[in-house]
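yo

u said u wanted the structure for the complex thing, so here. seqs first:
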Amino acid sequence: MDDMYRDYILDHYKNPRNFGELEGATHTYHDSNPLCGDEMTMQLKIDDGHVRDVHFVGKGCAISQASASILTEEVKGKTLDEVKAIDRDHVLANLGIPISPARVKCALLGLKALKGAAWGLTAWPGEEVKAK
Amino acid sequence: MDDMYRDYILDHYKNPRNFGELEGATHTYHDSNPLCGDEMTMQLKIDDGHVRDVHFVGKGCAISQASASILTEEVKGKTLDEVKAIDRDHVLANLGIPISPARVKCALLGLKALKGAAWGLTAWPGEEVKAK
Amino acid sequence: MAVTVKPQTAPLDVARIRADFPVLSRTVRGKPVVYLDNAATSQKPRQVIDAMRRVFEEHNANIHRGVYEFSERTTAAFEEARAKVARLLNAPSEREVIFVRNATEGVNLVAYSWGRENIKPGDRIVTTVLEHHSDFVPWQQLAKDVGAQVVVVDIDDEGRLRRDQLSAELRKGAKLLAITHTSNGLGTVNPVKEIAAEAHAVGATVVVDAAQAVPHTPVDVQALGADFLVFSGHKMLAPPGSGAVWGRTALLEEMRPFLYGGDMISRVTVSMTEWNELPWKFEAGTSSYVDAIGLGAAVDYLTDVSLERIHEHELSLVGYLLPRLGEIPGVTIYGPKTLESRVGVVSFNIEGIHPHDVATIFDREAVCVRAGHHCNQPLMTRLGVPATTRASFYLYNTIEECDALVRVVHAAKKVFGV
Amino acid sequence: MAVTVKPQTAPLDVARIRADFPVLSRTVRGKPVVYLDNAATSQKPRQVIDAMRRVFEEHNANIHRGVYEFSERTTAAFEEARAKVARLLNAPSEREVIFVRNATEGVNLVAYSWGRENIKPGDRIVTTVLEHHSDFVPWQQLAKDVGAQVVVVDIDDEGRLRRDQLSAELRKGAKLLAITHTSNGLGTVNPVKEIAAEAHAVGATVVVDAAQAVPHTPVDVQALGADFLVFSGHKMLAPPGSGAVWGRTALLEEMRPFLYGGDMISRVTVSMTEWNELPWKFEAGTSSYVDAIGLGAAVDYLTDVSLERIHEHELSLVGYLLPRLGEIPGVTIYGPKTLESRVGVVSFNIEGIHPHDVATIFDREAVCVRAGHHCNQPLMTRLGVPATTRASFYLYNTIEECDALVRVVHAAKKVFGV
Ligand SMILES: Cc1ncc(COP(=O)(O)O)c(C=O)c1O
Ligand SMILES: Cc1ncc(COP(=O)(O)O)c(C=O)c1O
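structre next:
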């Protein structure tokens, strides 16, 4: 049972790092997974091409929140290009727990919001016009 | 093989009785089975509630044509009420051969046209407005 | 919270029933599977699996136009399945039973075929916050297209329809009432018979989503007084791909077909087409005839066991589970707290654990439940939660499985330290 | 009439293939069945039957939203089937493959979803007299509703499309070209690639009915240059209930959904709905996921055998049959008399015997052929016959079965004395 909800995962879930509004953020992106109600906002303070600070605000399952929290720890100080290069496999490996297919979206929500912020998007290409 | 295409069936098919336009017909009804292209017109000369004469014009499979031919022989001289009372089972029994489900419509096309004529219909109830 | 069930019928021989369902004897990661996601889809007995296999192995052929034995046998089996569905629903005629892929296609058929000709600008479509998306989005989109209005009736805090509000809305006038017979999110059973009578009194046409009703209780379309009723086979032991719309002959006759193509025509020329008779007018192209034959076998199975007894069995499980689940600190149960007008659906949340995490932890113990919005987003919004965890029962579930569920709730709480 | 086939590939091991199809070893009235109605539907190998049974017996659960192992396994199998179809068609992306019940639903999806937004009053829809009703009636009805015009291109006396006429009609302008890849009535294969290029040159969108193509020959949607392509699984060893629409991403993205309900949404509120991504935006409600998984297994089977070889095998049967059938006095064969651009469909009539009587006599000998209009009424009108008898081949048919067919033609003539 504990292979998935390891202590550090639960710790990140309950005590998320870099959580809350980021004052002076230069890049902000909000995303959500309507299927489970997960919400995620990533905020970056970029200066000279480097991530000087990063915060997130979110609510949702342990996997999405812990994954985002771990991600914020990792990207601080990285260059914008390094952030843009982070991929899905890296995030899943970093989580360090087996993620079943149905939960992959949860695990990657933080990354999706981070990328949206890093690329300066306002919406994911192709998703702007979805609502009818 | 010959249980279905008995000699008398083929005889009725090739030499249909009471075939052709009926002069002085009082009741005429045309029907068809678009699925196989069978066509059938039944014409009655009714006088004093009795079938004085009956003819049919049709084209199609042996079963539909033989069945119609046999039917015309049977109804001549009958009262209109007797004609109206002829039912499906009677016609199938009269044919004297096993009719598989897919061919029942063929076997009954003559009866359908006969009934249409006997009831003085111009179209089967419910079928008038089918075309769109 | 004290709930009891007074069985009116002999209890089910669940062990014997379970033996008919091959999947129920499987294990997941070494643990026997506990399948509690029946509102999403049901498992299939070998009687259904075999009925389908027999078609493929013994007499498969396309239906309706084949002048040879295989085709005639398959056609007979397909049309016999229709007759079984008609009998199950007490439909006045088999011609009123149209096979569709699922309840969703059924609602869309009615919305496109009846709706687009009958709903006019300004018309009011009354529906409820309990609706599954499949009985909501088609009406929302129809209303948007023709300029009609959708009115959504609320529930009370136990998840029961606000009858006062519904009556008031109907009195204001309605062209259509689209209502779920049984809520897949909360297990509430709506008093459709009374509601349909009220709706008819104001001239509304009544569409009943019976996707959660037909599998679990006897449904009699004549007694209900509905105009259209839809359901899915896959929730009632039949394969996905089977399902039906029942509709009144008078309405179906008037309606334009929905899908056009082979089999639904009687005559085609380059300039016009005549439609086939009911029900084939609505069944374009090659039907899912093997799935439909599977549905026929499922109807036989359910009828043999008896839907009354299945309903009572499910209520006895809910009656057992509700107090045991409800007494666990931090557990919130949504929907009716009594067994009255209810089916075997139990939606709940554990404080401090997201439903997806709950379901994952349950999965580790081979307990299959659904976590999410259950295609009930308006209902979730109404409940003020993003999602719930839902356990839903069927004829093969047991008291031991309820115990397993309670056990994993405790285990989840332990993992999360809540 | 001399027709020969020069095989490019090794011949099929038909005996081994037949052993995979349980139904082919059955008898009808004591006689081994000769199944020659493959254009109507195909038989199923045990690989397909077993793939479906395995879902039911090992891990059945509803797909896409289940957070537990059964659901994840079933979802994976379903989406893997989609990937297999995408690879079979050489589709640029799996997202372009939408599962539907059959080709008919596929055409209707395009007609409702793309057609109703894009075909305007006065627009010209060009199609052909070879079309199956399923690729004709939806366009006829759409044209009627929006005030567009349907232009029907003729064939020559061998059943080949009048290319000159088609080109001329396209040059007059067309918004849509709806064309069958392969005629189910005559076996003609249309040069879709060249025609699609011509259609695109005048700005028309091209819908290809590949119901008789995908089962019998390699089809590459990119090479063809189609915009939409539809087919049915049941004609290619898969169960009825499976089938797909392939469409270009750019078109599918722009299109409004067709059916509304569960699974095709991303967010629903009482006042609006956001659609799910491709392809799920077009798959409302519970998919026929077991049928789709069966289709995946069928694709594997066909790919293993090789569609090139299947095509050559069928041509070799036609090449054997055509002269032998054609030399029988009173037999008229419709459609191409050579093997060029042709599949294994042979339509014919026997003078003096109605096709239904032919089929009945064949049935007595356990030879299954189709008699009727084959959902091709405009074509029958063009041929000047009410119906034809049609034998259609597949990978498991044999030379001996061609001989059996010829034998029963003689027998039928004897019965009728013609
Ligand atoms: C060329 C063609 N198009 C469309 C169809 C319709 O297929 P289905 O009935 O599976 O929708 C058929 C099948 O008969 C066909 O041969
Ligand atoms: C009440 C209700 N209506 C409609 C549906 C849709 O059923 P299907 O997905 O089989 O079309 C469901 C199934 O989830 C349901 O529970």
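DSSP finds five helices and three strands in chain A. The radius of gyration of chain A is 14 Å.
cya
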